[in-house]
Amino acid sequence: MNSARELLKLIESKQLFPLFQPIIDTAEEHIIGYEALIRGPQGHPLEFPDALFSAAQQHDLLSELELACREAAIREFLLLDTDARLFLNVNPNVLQDSDHPHGTTLRLSQQLGIDPRRIVIELSERYPIQQPELLKEAVLHYQQLGFLVAIDDLGAGYSGLKLWSEIKPDFVKIDRYFISDLNNQPTKREFVQSITSLARKVNAKVIAEGIETIEEFHQLHHLNLFLCQGFLFARPTKNPPQTLPVEHLLPQARNTIAPNPDTIASVTRDAITLSPFDKAHNALELFSNRRTLCSIPIVDNGKAVGMLRRESLMELFSGSYGRALYANKEVSRVMDSNPVVVDCNTPIDTVSTIITDDDDVDIFREFIVTQKQQFLGVASVRDLLKRITELRIQNARYANPLTLLPGNVPIHQHLDELLAARQSFAIAYFDINHFKPFNDNYGYAKGDEVIRQLGQLLVQYADSPYTFIGHIGGDDFVVIFRKTEVAEVICKQVIDAFEQHITTFYSTQDKQRGYVLATGRNGQQQSFPLTSLAVGLVIVSADTIQSHHQVAALASEAKKQAKQESGSYCYVDCR
């Protein structure tokens, strides 16, 4: 077969056609775009892309093939009658070909009536990139024309993360290799987490491609990676689905109340229970048959009314007449009628205080956990202390080194746990206005002192079992309130305290004139107001929010509104 002649024949007779595979936002459950995957006639030696592009490379027909593929993809895509985006695969090196006619894709989009913002140019890392600088210029050219840009097959090839961070694409697609068996390979999970973290910093969206198993999808969902593509959802086809419900694929935890790891619910477990009218010999039999059973909650019509402990019951039955005296008595006669009972939403630190108030605390002692006054389960002092230790280690691991407050990882985890529990809350985003001119005048050491001061004020006024204080980085902090009614009051208290303390950091001259002199963005010296505090406060209804990304966007927008005001200000957004 003369592959050059066959390829030219396919191009000239327009026999190339695309199949489309949907890309889904599994959090919002809608299709954001379709990737066009080109094919030749069925049964033809050049039916599949590897053969097509290999022949094109061999016979210097890559530019001709690329343009034919794009035209076929755009024409067929418009027939789908969808508002989603079209993802077009492009070999980066063709952009550097001097014979490649530039501007063809834009002319095609204008001719066929499709907004360039609906077209995403996918640049694959699978091809060796000989001149990265020229590639960056080409990417900028596409973006200036209005197209979006994606890097495909991230991690599969040659250009690496340095090039990605310089290009700042709109989308990044993680190669199938890193998605395959992700649920069983910690190294792959760490890679995916690193990529999503870096993507946030360059404002790129991450797409996981090649998802084939439900376990891979659930692991990605757990990692808060919601843009997905793969055979699990749909195979490439000429007529792809317009909607693609994924509710049946989602982890079951989405439809249940998830325990918040900062509350006692996180260490609560099921337990064998007895009615207060059961006989004591029934309890004795349970303890005798289950050596690890420490206690039995006594529950009446769903309410916990007491606790029967192994050591107490065994002591009663150990005497000469113990069995005769107690075997047929109701357990209500021998139970502890005043056990420790806590609600499942009680913060772990609060429960720890309740438990350790007892001078004779036993680490194996169990207590009762309720939900809306109904029996839920039991927890032990040992599990409680273990969880406290785990949380402290985790917070220390991800703490901001300047303030030792929890950083981005625990902040995101805390938000996701509140959302999973369908719990309404408030989030306050604190940002220092005109902080750069202060740093420029007084130095970074003094700036660090101001940041630490703000962190200390937040702890002083906002710290409680019902709040979470986090340090995003720099002069940005967040406070998450589970008691929304106190949020605005506390924010204003912090503002007042900040206003009182901040003047101590300025020289007498700057305080008297009320501004500092610093170099502005235009390179000229100008005056800047003294620092103040902008607070964006959002009252969040968890039923309307899917992920911490949405919460962060709302809080950032509220903070921007607060910064529009002169001086310190708290902007409140009730959702």
CATH fold-level name of the largest domain: TIM Barrel
As laid out across the biggest beta sheet, the strand order is: 1-2-3-4-5-6-7-8
Number of strands: 20
| Individual helix count | 20
Q: Span between N and C termini?
A: 65 Å
Portion in beta strands: 15-25%
Structural class: alpha/beta
The CATH class of the largest domain is identified as Alpha Beta
| Alpha-carbon Rg, integer | 31 Å
Q: From the coordinates shown, what is the CATH architecture of the largest domain?
A: Alpha-Beta Barrel
What is the H level of CATH, i.e. the homologous superfamily of the largest domain?
A: EAL domain
Largest sheet: 8 strands, mixed, barrel
Summed over residues and divided by their number, the pLDDT gives a mean of 85
User: Looking at the structure, what is the overall shape?
Assistant: flat
Helical percent range? 25-40%
The number of domains is 3
Q: Spans of 5+ residues with little confidence (pLDDT < 50)?
A: 252-258
Protein name: Diguanylate cyclase/phosphodiesterase
Domain EAL: 1-250
Pfam family, one: CBS
Domain GGDEF: 423-575
Compile the SSE list and pairings.
Layout: H1 3-12, E1 17-25, E2 30-39, H2 49-58, H3 62-79, E3 85-90, H4 104-112, E4 119-124, H5 132-144, E5 148-154, H6 160-167, E6 171-174, H7 176-179, H8 186-201, E7 205-208, H9 214-222, E8 227-228, H10 280-289, E9 295-300, E10 303-309, H11 310-318, H12 322-326, E11 341-343, H13 348-356, E12 366-371, E13 374-380, H14 381-397, H15 408-420, E14 425-433, H16 435-442, H17 444-462, E15 467-473, E16 476-481, H18 487-502, H19 508-513, E17 515-519, E18 525-529, E19 532-540, H20 548-563, E20 569-574
Parallel strand pairs: 2-3, 3-4, 4-5, 5-6, 6-7, 7-8, 11-12, 19-20
Antiparallel strand pairs: 1-2, 1-8, 9-10, 12-13, 14-16, 14-19, 15-16, 17-18
Helix pairs in contact: 2-3, 3-4, 13-14, 16-17, 17-18
